[in-house]
Amino acid sequence: MKKYLSFFTIRLVNGLQYRAAAIAGIVTQFAWGGMTLLMFRAFYNYNLGAFPMTFPELSSYIWLQQAFLALYMPWYFDNDIFNAIVSGDIAYELCRPIDVYAMWFIKNAAVRLSRAILRCMPILIVAVFLPAPYTFSPPVSLLSGLMFLLSMILGFLVLIAFIMLIYITAFYTISPTGIRILATSVIEFLTGAIIPLPFFPQGIQKIVYMLPFAYVQGTPFLIYNGFISGTEVLKSILLQTFWFLLLMISVKLLMKRALKKVVVQGG
Amino acid sequence: MRLYLKYASIILKSQMQYKSSFFMMAMGQFLVSFSAFLAVSFMFSRFDSVSGFTYTEVLLCFSIILTSFSLTECFVRGFDAFSSIISNGEFDRIMVRPRNEILQVLSSRIEFSRLGRLLQALAMFVYAIGASNIIWTFDKIAALILMLAGGIAVFSGMFIIYASLCFFTLEGLEFINIFTDGAREFGKYPFSIYGESILKFLTYVIPMALFQYYPFLYLVGKSNNTLYMFFPLLAMLFIIPCLVFWRFGVRHYKSTVPDLIY
After folding, report:
1. A45 touches chain B (CB under 8 A)
2. Interchain contact A189–B (C-beta under 8 A)
3. Residue of A72, A252, A76 lying closest to A168 (CA atoms)
4. Which of A185, A188, A197, A206 to mutate to test the interface with B (most CBs of B within 10 A)?
5. How far apart are CA B36 and CA B38, in angstroms?
């Protein structure tokens, strides 16, 4: 356990060094969030009846999304992992007395977490002081705040478990570029990073909620702003746990199978 | 110009050596903007118009901005990836050649796979034209061409500023993305929907509304002011300060390569 912890801290501390990049990122995300809200405002002004949630709820959602973008960003992949698989360096990793799956999982989590730590607070603090409908409000209740934290961790785990699946495909395809771009756009759209899931048409929402992507960032943010409440909260958290376990176990099995067949040439 | 075409054909040939990878990339580019399209159509399945613009009008606007953005991204990619040219010392090599630096940077990278997006822009465009009731007179076609040209000029200007900043920071500054990727994302709706102050900013500071919003009003017949049609020409002037800034950057360039040993 200790070795995994040190992998985690190394990556985390390493990521925390990039403070200038973080400042640039904060400015960008702030502008991005603001423009998104203004866009939704235009739709809201036109027909507030067709809006699935109240505007303050949406504001909180969007600011959380921008603040924790790094946790759930769909486009980040660790190139070292792809390179290790494609170039055969994975042989070294396999020699080490560690579980490769766990190590990759932890590295990914640490990089995302370090970026999120640097960026989340400034965005949220400034967003709190914005004028009325655009402001970032506190959670609807203490309970929903706690559930939000739990659900955010679970969503994070679901995402990384899925990303691990993309890494594994490199064992079979050699050139992972195509699948990577495909995965990025699918994750981005279906987790609700472009427009929140409640804005999807009813029929499509039903399908999306049967996929793991709905349980990544949508669930925690919607718990926070009170869109998901009561027993629904419990249900979504259980579904998050279910997806995490399912993805983790199946990808681990898949990886075991791939590693059995893997041939590394050269000596 | 002939030199540039020569470069372009070499790059095209070399990219065509990896055909499947090329088409994958193009497909990927297509998918990325396809999800933006889905987002627009999902929004319009809920609301049938926004700030007075209908679905087809928004699609038309989206296809125009996407076309000019993807053309720019394809050909001005050298500036987009400029931080790597600076950091690996390639710019030193560019400086010693007896040719214009801008031409060389432009021809260092041409990303033809970005044209995958054009396909989508074209599809949306054809659909929007079919569904809208614009009568395509000569002046409307001219307005459309001016919009595209203005868009390419302003986006190129943004990429040049982004690259010029690399002279001072050595690394790309992420916040310029707001005006490149951001403009592509948010420019799918006419800029007026974001409210008065954003529109003013995009008119007087970064002249994006000049090639998008005003001529678009004329194009879809929301305004009869013929003057609007020529606003993209004003937008094109934006590239002048960008080039001045680039010159300024080149003059301040200090090589990143420590003393070369010959």
Report:
1. yes
2. yes
3. A252
4. A185
5. 5
> Torsions phi, psi of B109, nearest 5?
-145, 130
The structure tokens 């000569």 sit at: B138
Query: Measured between beta carbons, which residues in chain B are less than 8 angstroms from residue A204?
Result: 42
Residues of A in contact with B50 (CB under 8 A): 42-43, 46
Q: Which of A24, A32, A38 is the closest to B182 by Cβ?
A: A32
Which residue stretches of A18-54 are H helix? 19-46
Query: Which of A18, A19, A26, A32 should we substitute to test contact with B (largest number of B Cβ atoms within 10 Å)?
Result: A32
For A131-194, the DSSP string reads: -GGG--PPPSSHHHHHHHHHHHHHHHHHHHHHHHHHHHHHHHHS--HHHHHHHHHHHHHHTTSS
**Long-range residue pairs from B143-148, CB within 8 A, at least 24 positions apart, any chain:** B143/B215, B143/B218, B143/B219, B143/B229, B144/B64, B144/B219, B146/B211, B146/B215, B146/B229, B146/B230, B146/B232, B146/B233, B147/B64, B147/B68, B147/B211, B147/B212, B147/B215, B147/B216, B147/B219, B147/B232, B148/B64, B148/B67, B148/B68, B148/B71
Please tell me which of the candidates B27, B36, B193 has its beta carbon nearest to residue A39: B193
Total length of chain B = 262
Under an 8 A CB cutoff, do A24 and B194 touch?
no
- Among residues of chain A, what percentage have pLDDT more than 70? 98
What is the CA angle B165-B168-B171, rounded to 5? 70
Task: Please tell me the least confidently modeled range out of A39-53, A140-154, B55-69.
Answer: A39-53
- Alpha helical stretches, state H, B76-137: 77-80, 82-87, 90-96, 101-108, 116-131
Partner-chain contact A42 B32, CB within 8 Å? no
Rounded-to-integer distance, Cα B57 and Cα B46, Å: 16
pLDDT in tens, B210-247: 898 999 998 888 888 888 888 999 999 999 999 999 99
Residue A130 has pLDDT above 60, yes or no: yes
- Give residue-wise pLDDT tens across range A21-55: 788 888 888 889 999 999 999 988 888 888 888 99
- pTM, 2 dp: 0.86
Helix (H) or strand (E) holding A62: helix A55-67
pLDDT band at B6 (very low <50, low <70, confident <90, very high): confident
Q: Indicate if the pLDDT at residue A18 is higher than 80.
A: no
Instruction: Report pLDDT digits (tens) over B86-136.
Output: 877 788 888 888 888 888 888 888 878 777 788 888 888 888 888 877 788
